[in-house]
Amino acid sequence: MSHQMPPAHPFDDDKLREECGVFGAIGVSDAANFIALGLHALQHRGQEAGGIVTYDADSGFNSARRMGYVRDNFTSHEVMQTLPGSLGIGHVRYSTAGSKGQTAIRDVQPFFGEFAMGGAAIAHNGNITNADALRRELIERGSIFQSSSDSECIIHLMARSMGRNIPDRMEEALRKVEGAFSVVAMTRTKLIGVRDPLGVRPLVLGKLGDGWALASETCALDIIGAEFVREIEPGEMVVINAEKGVQSHFPFRPQKSRFCIFEHVYFSRPDSILGGRSVYETRENIGRELAKEAPVEADVVCPVPDSGTPAAIGYSLQSGIPYAMGIIRNQYMGRTFIEPTEQIRNMGVRLKLNVNRALIRGKRVILVDDSVVRGTTSRKIKEMILDAGAAEVHFRIASPPTAWPCFYGVDTPQREKLLAATMSEEEMTKHLGVNSLKFISLDGLYRAVGEAGGRDPKAPRYCDACFSGEYPVAPSDMIEKGFELKAVG
Ligand code: SF4
Q1: Ligand 1 lined by 408 (C-beta under 6 Å)
Q2: What pLDDT score does 342 carry?
Q3: Contact 36, 52 (CB under 8 A)
Q4: How far is the CA of 377 from the centre of ligand 1 (A)?
Q5: Ligand 1 within 6 A of 463 CB?
Q6: Candidate of 410, 411, 455, 478 to mutate for ligand 1, largest count of ligand atoms within 8 Å of Cβ
Q7: Which residues contact 348 (CB under 8 A, 6 or more apart)?
């Protein structure tokens, strides 16, 4: 039975959110069980809804789509027995707050299409930046959309293609799509994985016994005991079937890759491997860089849980200032108050985080967080730390100021709501009421992710548009709606 969920983080609207995670498996018995576990490991990439589609020769394509957590929906025998087969794909999503509202069940992926040569299901992580234009054109030509999701365009473009088989049709469809996409798809016999030419969002390949798996992150391979084989390359399409294994080709015009640098800072799980390096280690490096760039005399370094932890450890190691868990997270808060009352909502961040007073009282505290978005949570945390008797509060942020929205599959407030879009660092320091506030520089962040020379302004290796305002793919729908790109020169 499906049930309506409140936003997964009712007490924290002050983080950027990855909108999706994808997973696929082929050549394993009861693929749905592996997919459910994989999606569970990817739950941090989207908590509002999830779906699984499988194929079985006797019963054809089967699907289940549910609002809520994977662990609540895809563990019962009742549901899992409806998803037989050795081939399947799955998706978890977080709906964008505000602009599109909460997820409706019809927006929950994977999407399915029936074509002359058989059915296909598709799950998409990313965002199509020309989806409005494509949708208008498709509707004018007779397509009937079932959802409000940009990803559904891919199915309709495939339906219009004259390609001889489904991978050909998918290739043709994706050539018309702009923006970021990591896609897993399936036919009756094949599992398909594709990354956009810039490789903005991650996608990895794993080996599981005689079968194969595709996942947004390596942590989803670990949970099912699959061996991490490699990342799918930017612009690569892999078609996997039982007889021929993995066949790879590059259907798009080659471009320099621009992987999302924020995956390193925040979105990916710290136990995943990105670009051959542990995300945890990279975050520790970010903390070290931050300590070099923005030292301050203090007594203790505390992370803002949980995502600030590795950077805080790095800051502490580099600076020699002791690390302490000055703020403790109540892991179960979001689950306890499924429908919080107004009074409880007003208690806000205190419900989720509590200050470890004994460690804080009388101390000069460095608080390390991964980002400042609206700044609302940062202000509340500062108040809690001062209430607990801290002598000074210094914020150190493991990403540069987030001054631009993301149009590539991350939920970001409108530009005016981003603190760094409207205030200088000095103004933000005053606004937050802290003794000091420093962000890592863009060059420092590049160094921490392994670019010894920092950011090459002429050819940056990563997408860093939310910090720099330089969008590697022009967000054409948004420009049409009046979004102004950064003035150059
Ligand atoms: S704009 Fe920011 S969050 Fe979005 S893909 Fe680029 S680096 Fe990642």
Answers
A1: yes
A2: 60
A3: yes
A4: 21
A5: yes
A6: 410
A7: 11, 380
Percentage above 90 pLDDT, the chain:
81
Active-site residue identified among 20, 302, 406, 466: 20
Q: Is the peptide bond before 299 cis (omega within 30 degrees of 0)?
A: no
212: left (phi over 0), alpha (psi -120 to 50) or beta: beta
Q: Give the Å distance between the CA of 199 and the centre of ligand 1.
A: 12
445 in ligand 1 pocket by Cβ < 6 Å?
Answer: no
pLDDT number for residue 335: 46
Crossing angle (nearest 10°) for helices 376-387 and 425-432: 50
20 is catalytic: yes
CA distance linking residue 154 with residue 131, whole number of Å: 9
pLDDT at 1: 32
Q: Which atom of ligand 1 is nearest to the CA of 260?
A: 8
Ligand 1 midpoint to CA 110 (Å): 23
- Domains of the chain with bracketed CATH: 17-258 (3.60.20.10), 282-453 (3.40.50.2020)
pLDDT at res. 5 = 37
Note every long-range contact of 252-257, with CB atoms under 8 Å and residues 24 or more positions apart, other chains counting.
252/174, 252/175, 252/196, 252/197, 253/197, 254/197, 255/197, 255/198, 256/198, 256/459, 256/461, 257/198, 257/199, 257/461
Residue 341 confidence (pLDDT): 61
Calpha distance 32→124 (Å, rounded):
18
Q: In this predicted structure, what is the pLDDT of residue 99? A: 41
Q: Beta strand 111-115 with 118-128: parallel, antiparallel or unpaired?
A: antiparallel
**Which parts of the chain have pLDDT scores under 70?**
1-13, 95-103, 332-348, 488-489
DSSP conformational letter for 186: E
Ligand 1 in contact with 267 (CB < 6 A)? no
Q: Burial code of 311-327, b = ≥16 C-beta within 10 A, e = fewer? A: bbbbbbebbebebbebb
pLDDT for position 11? 41
pLDDT at 337: 46
Judge whether 440 and 314 are in contact, CB under 8 Å.
no
Q: What pLDDT is recorded for position 115?
A: 92
Please, which residues have CB within 8 angstroms of residue 342's CB and are 6 or more apart in sequence? none
From the CA of 260, how far away is ligand 1's center (Å)? 5
Q: What is the pLDDT of residue 13?
A: 61
The predicted-structure confidence for 331-385, as pLDDT tens digits, reads as follows 765 544 445 566 655 566 777 888 999 999 999 999 999 999 999 889 999 999 9
How many Å lie between the centroid of ligand 1 and the Cα of residue 430?
27
Is ligand 1 within 6 A of the CB of residue 53? no
State whether the beta carbon of 261 lies less than 6 angstroms from ligand 1: yes
Pairing of strands 227-231, 245-249: unpaired
